[in-house]
């Protein structure tokens, strides 16, 4: 028991250091002396603790300034925890859409330029096929992808689109002979679609991602007011095609409810 209490106490002290590095003052990093001062701990102890946290990837140290800041693993853990919470919170709302539209529904996020599905809820008739959890897809031809890009300013969208377009002509370094597919839309077409999403609050696709498949998506906002996910409904065109506008409006309504549950402003 004594060893467990000692370990727990040490863990709490390390968490205190991480909280210091999350302060606004630490935006450009903090040195050991300042971290010790803010945490009220001995400088030598803080130095050893930060070195251990750096080895674990929880903090990083600038080689030139010797300042510490939160590390890559801390951000990865935070992202995973946030997405897990989001998927759990959204589940009953997704089931509401399934009950109303009787179509497969997904909760999607943007990672490294691709759209990933966090959670899916299947309709009773279960339009199945490929399971989308953990599979990255092109954001340009998907309604959730465009929704997730819709809050970006035109300059950022343009830079990202040009990077994607430029990569299409070159082989991938780790996959000899393979290439990145070029964007299916011109930049002008893409910016026009993003503007429409901002105006009406949802996006539709009609056989752009896959022949015979249509879909709608609407944005989910986090407590900071930024888009954190997209709610998507996908189905064969024969079933959902004529209902796309109505499905889009209902999906937007449910996405707004999820946003409210996350504490989104407004």
Automatic annotation (TrEMBL):
Keyword Transcription: yes
HTH iclR-type domain location: 8-72
Classification via InterPro entries: GAF-like_dom_sf, HTH_MetabolicPath_Reg, Tscrpt_reg_IclR_C, Tscrpt_reg_IclR_N, WH-like_DNA-bd_sf, WH_DNA-bd_sf
Domain IclR-ED: 73-264
Keyword field: DNA-binding, Transcription, Transcription regulation
A Pfam entry, by short name: IclR_C
UniProt name for this protein: IclR family transcriptional regulator
Source organism (scientific name): Amycolatopsis silviterrae
């Amino acid at each position: 028991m004594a060893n467990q209490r000692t370990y727990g106490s040490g863990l709490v002290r390390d968490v205190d250091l991480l909280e210091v590095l999350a302060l606004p003052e630490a935006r450009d990093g903090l040195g050991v002396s300042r971290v010790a001062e803010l945490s009220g701990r001995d400088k030598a102890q803080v130095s050893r603790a930060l070195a251990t946290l750096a080895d674990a990837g929880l903090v990083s140290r600038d080689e030139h300034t010797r300042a510490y800041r939160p590390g890559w693993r801390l951000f990865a853990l935070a992202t995973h925890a946030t997405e897990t919470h989001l998927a759990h919170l959204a589940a009953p709302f997704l089931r509401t859409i399934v009950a109303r539209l009787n179509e497969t529904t997904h909760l999607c996020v943007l990672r490294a330029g691709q759209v990933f599905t966090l959670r899916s809820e299947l309709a009773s008739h279960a339009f199945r096929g490929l399971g989308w959890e953990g599979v990255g897809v092109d954001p340009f031809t998907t309604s959730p992808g465009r929704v997730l890009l819709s809050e970006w300013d035109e300059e950022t969208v343009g830079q990202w689109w040009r990077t994607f377009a430029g990569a299409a002509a070159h082989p991938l370094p780790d996959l000899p002979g393979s290439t990145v597919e070029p964007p299916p839309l011109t930049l002008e077409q893409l910016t026009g679609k993003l503007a429409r999403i901002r105006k009406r609050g949802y996006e539709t696709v009609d056989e752009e991602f896959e022949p015979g498949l249509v879909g709608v998506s609407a944005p989910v906002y986090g407590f900071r007011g930024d888009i954190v996910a997209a709610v998507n409904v996908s189905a064969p065109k024969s079933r959902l095609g004529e209902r796309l506008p109505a499905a889009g409006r209902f999906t937007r309504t449910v996405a707004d409810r999820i946003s409210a549950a996350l504490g989104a402003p407004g």
